[in-house]
Amino acid sequence: MTDSGTWHRAASLGELREGEPYGVEISGHHVALYRVGQEFYATGNICTHAEALLSDGMLDGCEIECPLHMGRFDIRTGEALTSPVEIDIPVYPVRVVDDRLEVCLPA
Q1: Which of 16, 79, 102, 104 has the greatest number of CB atoms lying within 10 Å of its CB?
Q2: Does 54 fall in a domain?
Q3: 38 within domain boundaries
Q4: What is the tally of structural domains in the chain?
Q5: Which one, of 48, 33, 23, lies nearest residue 103 by Cα?
Q6: What is the spatial distance between Cα 53 and Cα 46, in angstroms, rounded to a whole number?
Q7: Verdict on whether the full-model pTM lies above 0.90
Q8: Sheet harboring 63-65: ordered strands across?
């Protein structure tokens, strides 16, 4: 996704812990936020297989595992990596502004 959309405050950097997914709802979008080292990522928070919250799953490097059926997605690309997930999740651009993370969501 390109930066075409609207930037929204998603979380303060202090709320985002290394390796712990963080779920938020922004303007009707369910978003999962991730911190991997000094990098930040944002994806859709709903598993495309069975509608579980990915923010309740386990983060392993740059892969999030759905807590329901253990399907995995790449948080950098949204790509569905393992069965039973077959449909990718959306990914959103992020930026750090002062002490907060912002996410660009489609209009």
Answers
A1: 102
A2: yes
A3: yes
A4: 1
A5: 33
A6: 5
A7: yes
A8: 58-60, 63-65, 72-74
For 75, the domain range is 6-105
Per the listing, tokens 């579980």 go with 52
* Residue indicated by tokens 């919250």: 53
Dihedral angle computed from the Cα positions of residues 51, 17, 76 and 56, in that order, rounded to the nearest 10 degrees: -10
Tell me the three state secondary structure of residue 62: coil
Could you count the other beta carbons within 10 Å of the beta carbon of residue 13?
A: 13
Q: How many CA atoms lie within 13 A of 16 on its CB side?
A: 23
Q: Of 103, 87, 107, 79, which is closest to residue 16 (Cα–Cα)? A: 103
CA separation for the pair 93, 41 (Å, rounded):
7
Q: How far is 65 from 85, CA to CA, in rounded Å?
A: 10
Is 1 inside a domain boundary?
no
Average pLDDT score over residue span 69-75: 96
List pLDDT tens digits, range 91-104. 999 999 999 999 99
- Residue 76 inside a domain? The answer is yes
Tokens of 6: 């609207």
- Work out the number of other CB atoms within 10 angstroms of the CB of residue 106: 11
